[in-house]
Each structure stands twice: as C-alpha cells, then as structure tokens.
Amino acid sequence: MKSNKVVNKTIYYIVVAAIVIVFIYPFWWMVTNSLNSINEIFSKPSLLPKSWMWHNYIEIFQVQPFARHYLNTLAVALLGTLGNVFISALSGYAFARLRFPGRSGLFILLLTALMMPIEVTIVPMYFMMNSIGANDTLVPLILIPVFCSQGAFSAFMLRQHFITVPKELEEAARLDGLRPAGIFFRIMLPISVPVLSSAAILAFLSVWNMYLEPLVFVSSLDKFTLPLSLSNFNDTYGLPQWNLQLAATTLSVIPVMIFYLIFQNKISDAMVSSGMK
Amino acid sequence: MLKKQSKLARGEAVTGYLFILPQMLGFIILVLVPLVMVFVYSFESRNLLFGNLGFTGLDNYKTLVEDDLFFITLKNTIIFSLGVVPLNLVLSLALALYLGANAAGAKVVRSVIFLPVITSGVAWAIVFKYLFQGGEAGPINYILSFIGIEGPNWLHEKGWAMFAVVISRVLKNLGMNVLIFMGAVMNLPQDVLEAGRIDGATKPVLFWKIKLPLLMPSILMVMIVTVIGSMRVFDTIKLMTDGGPEGSTMVLVYYIYHQAFRTFNIGYASSVAVVLFLIVLGLTIIQWSLRKRASYYEE
C-alpha cells in the first residue's frame, strides 16, 4: 500500500514535469534560436545557441523600422486600453446604478456585441474607415478594442462590479450633496481600481496581440504593429530571415511574459472570467 | 418635495444617458451598422477597387452553393474544430481532475500552461512553424527520431498540415480551459462527493456517476466557447500554412480575408461572412440557453 503511494506520487511529478517541458520548450527554442544564424536554425536542434549571434538583435532594427512598430503597438495598446476602460466604466456604472427608461433593453442590446466576431464585420468596416480617411492609420486599431466586443465585455464586467458596491456609499455621498457624476468620479472610480485594472489588462493584451485588424487596415510599413512586423522579416529577395524573425518575436513576447510573471494571478483570473463570458 | 424628487430622478436619467452615450454610439457605428452592411453587401456585386456594381439579389449565395472551394473551406473548418475541441476538452478536464486545484504541482502547471494563452497567436504560430519543420532540423521530428519514427514534412503534406495546426492551437489555448475546469472542480460540492465515498463508490464510479454529471454544465459551456473560437481561427493558419498545402488548411475566416482583400470580391466575401455570422449566432443561442438552464439549477 505504501509503495503504491510512492508510485502514484512519482507518476504525478513525472506528469507535472512533462507538462512544464512541453509548455516551456517552445519559448526556450524561440529564445535560443534567436541567437543562431539561419543555417544553424536549419541544422540539428540543440538546447543552446550555437554561435550566440547577439547581432541579430541589432539587425532587426536595421532591416525594418522595428522600433517604430514597437512604439505603434504601445501607442495603440495604451490608447485602446484607456478608451476601453474609461468609456465602459461610464456605461457600466450607468447600467448598474443610474435609473433611466430603457436601461435593461439597451444593456441587452449592447451585450450582442459580445458575440459579434470582428471577422464578420471587418469587411464593411474597411469601407467605413476608408470613407472617413482612417484606412492606413492607427485609428481603427484604437476604435475596435474600445467599442467592439472587448468594449462590451469591459462594460459587462464593470457593471457586474458596480452592482456589488454597497448602496450606502452612494446614499452618504448624495447627502453630502454630490450629484451622480460626482459620485462616479470621486467615489466609484477610486474604489474600483482593482476591477478597472483587470479590464485594462484584458484590453491591453487583446490589442497587443491583434493580427487580422492591422492586416486589413494598415498597409504602409511605418504604421505596422508588432504582429504584422513579425511576419514581415524578409530579405531583399523576399526570402524569410528566420533568425531575425525569432529575435523580433522574442522581443515582442518578453514584456508580456514579465508582466505576467508579476501579476500572474490577476491576469489568469481576469482571462478566465472573460473565457466564460 | 415631490417636485424635487422628480427633478432629481430626471437629473439621474439625463446623467445615465450621457454616461452610456459614448459606448452606445460606438456600438451602433462600429458593430450594428457594419453587421447590417455585411448583409447588404452580400446582395451586391461589390468590388474593393470599383465599389458597388449594383444589386444582384441572391447571386452571391447562388455562387456560394456551387463553389467547391467554399465547401472545402467549410469542411476544413469543421475538421479543424473536430480536432481541436475534443482534444482540448479531454486534455484540460483530465489535467484539472488529475492535478487537483491545490497541490504544489498544480500551481506550477497553472502558471506554465497559461503562458501560451497570453502570448500572441502570431508569435506562437511562428514558433510552431519552426518546431514542425520537415527533416531532422525540425525539433519535433528530431524528438520523434529518437523513438525511431521518421516524421513527415508536417506543414507541406496534406493531412499532416491540419494535424500540426490543430496541435499548435490546442497547446496555445489549453491553459484557459484547464484553469476554468480547475475552478469548477474546486467548486464541486464536497458533501456529495463525501457521501459517495462513504457509500463505497470506487474512483471510476465517483467520476462517471457523480463528478462528470456535476461538471456537465461547465463542460458544455467551455465546449461551446471552444467551438466558437475554432470557427474563428485565422492567425494560426495564415502564419503556419497560409491555407496550404493545396488549400487543405483553408478555413472560413481565411477565405473571407482572401476573397475580400486578395481577389477584391467584397460582395462574395460578405456572403461567406454571413455564413460565419449565422454559425456563431446559432452557437451563441445554444450557449445562452444552456447558461439560463445552468443558473436555473443553481437556484
């Protein structure tokens, strides 16, 4: 009986180790091969870089405006996140706490955005953006996370949160002479920072990782965001520069990883709640 | 007094409308209007370069039902889904149940398995394109060679290419479902499980007769969310196989993108988009009715 327990425990740790290896290996492979030459990538795999070509990390900034792409992505992600959180906090609070005719109907209408795949609406959106001259700018990439499904999701999440805030808090503020707008800005927003930051994390990740939208709306090289940039490492003959692609991919993944390692539980909890939507 | 009350209420209503205005306006312009327009476009002969060439009624849909490539695309999407969904569900449920929610190993697995979930689909697809290289240079083939298997040239052979994209997709999203199931397992009513154990239920009985039925609502929810996600796959395919070889990994969204922005058939692409919309709508209606029933049980 006792040896049975030992066997079970051993199997348990073997399973855990196997999972860790399977999920860490792709990242390990990415980082180590970003320091190889192209030929080395296509020779027998090894666990460590063969020639430690740190030069790859300089070259990615030379073959295309990679720094610009990085800044574009940061700008889009920050603006998209700010807009998303602010606008959905306003509507989430109104839908949770302010009484006005048509409230629940309008909220249900807004929820239909949750299920609307951007892949369905992106074709007409291309024409709309074209008609206001927003194609080949970063504007659509900021508007989409603010107002499409990610925006509706934040509104939903924040409404759920505002519903749980004790009513006494508002009563007290009202007696102090605060109007609804004052209550929202002076009391509700400050006490909601944890939930707001969860919504912000989700919005930020979704913008940082979006691919189809920039592929459709952006065409000039200086407007690229990271996902487009990564798939664009070709030499003058159009042949892919694998090692540079991997170096750039590493640089795009690392900040998100660090961010995740710091706020692990918060991020995974927020993602899981959005996965259940 | 009453007058003051109603004035206050009116003030509150005005503030309410003002607060929801930006969100609702954006929603109407960027979600509702494009949705209506995609239906309108699907009845037009519309071209990316030449604009609207006129109302053509059901012509696009007639083309659709005669378009072999569309049906291949639809079939590929379903094959992809049939690969991803069962594999993902079985693996994630098994891991969640086996690892338990609190054990030390589970903590490690939780953090590691979630790394791909937050990584961009593009980065993940790029790395897996390399991992699935043909010949000995491909790490996956290299590992297979140790057990005497000569791996195929994954992404360039029909059949294997689909297999490779399914695997990379499952590994990318598995963590999400593992975490959801870990939560569900943790919320299982301990008294019921205890009662089962006291009555002498063996482990398999405990699983099939008690745990699985209790977990069913979560499993169904996760299943539908995973199906919807797999219907919308794009970046994995675009970057790993670009729809090939010979269109064997061409999926619905890829086809919409291809028709609209590569061959400029906006009208036709819109009719494919309408099909995708109807599929997602159907799945969402099932999801919502399941959720309603689930919350009914909870009460």
Summarize the structure.
Chain A has helices spanning 2-33, 38-41, 55-63, 66-97, 103-111, 118-131, 139-147, 149-164, 167-175, 180-191, 193-208, 212-217, 226-230, 242-262, 264-275. By secondary structure, chain A is an all-alpha fold. Chain A folds into two domains: 2-55, no CATH class; 64-232, MetI-like (MetI-like fold, Orthogonal Bundle), CATH 1.10.3720.10.
Q: Biggest sheet of chain B, open or closed, and with what strands and sense?
A: 2 strands, antiparallel
Uncertain regions spanning at least 5 consecutive residues of chain A: none
What is the succession of H and E elements of chain A?
Answer: HHHHHHHHHHHHHHH
Which stretches of chain B of 5+ consecutive residues score pLDDT under 50? none
Number of helices of chain B: 12
| Strand order of the biggest β-sheet of chain B | 1-2
Q: What is the C-alpha radius of gyration of chain A, as a whole number of Å?
A: 24 Å
Main sheet specs of chain A: none
**Approximately how much beta-strand content do the residues of chain A carry?**
under 5%
Shape category of chain A: globular
Distance between the termini of chain B: 41 Å
By oligomeric state, this entry counts as: heterodimer
